[in-house]
# Entry
Amino acid sequence: MLRSSSSRSDADRDPTPAPSLAQHSAASPDWGTPIAMRELAMAGLRPAASTTHGRAIDIDYASSSYWHAQWPREQVSTVFLDGSPGRDVLVDADRARAIARLRLQHDARGVTAFFNPPGLDGGRMIQRCWEIFERDHREGIIGSGCWIGFSLEQISHLQNTSALRHPLSTSREHAQSILTIIPSRRARYLIHPLRALVIIAKKLKRPRPLSEAKALRREAREIRARLRAGDATPIVGDAPPHASYVTFLLHRHRTVREHQRAAIAAYLGRDQKGWLFERAAVVGPI
# Structure
């Protein structure tokens, strides 16, 4: 895990035009991306990835040792930044140092990045993270990136940041570099078993049918048994009461962008009934 320095990032010093809302982002730095979203991210980033190694994602902009270890070995990013408040993702020097090491090992396509931002600080963290990600892409620090938006409500708040683009930018100047996909269903995020126990305890405090209460208690017992056995594998949580979205910051080179769009279209075109991206809406050329 990378350690943050005492310096503050440019984004920390930036004034806040409009605060985001905590309920429109997960109120924890620690939650897991749904598997279908991870697969989409890898499909869209692989054409932009360096040919010197087999990974689609070079750097995860906000993670932890626990969540980094949950990715399959062949899919996990080479490096991850700590998504906790004030840590590596918000410190320009730390982030630049990690990316510089990656760029030394890569070809001209550059570094690919994944970002499921932590929803802390009343949602302002989301705005800071977007400012950082958008700027790093625009300035060529990363070649291409994939952003996981926990709630569609985020988008209106990301329009009120210092970033030059937002997930729905469709101007002639920006349309070629932004592609946003909105699933037709609510995504179910992964959660740590301990967090699942907290959620179950809250549910049991509210009146509910006896059969539901028994099922919740049984689920809690099963989770505790797994934890005692040393199994801390994430659990698929309940879907939030809103839709999510995925935004790609596409590569600056036209040929690479076209390959990315083709790969994204192929993934979304899977003939699978009832899955997250069935009849998904796409904002931007594909």
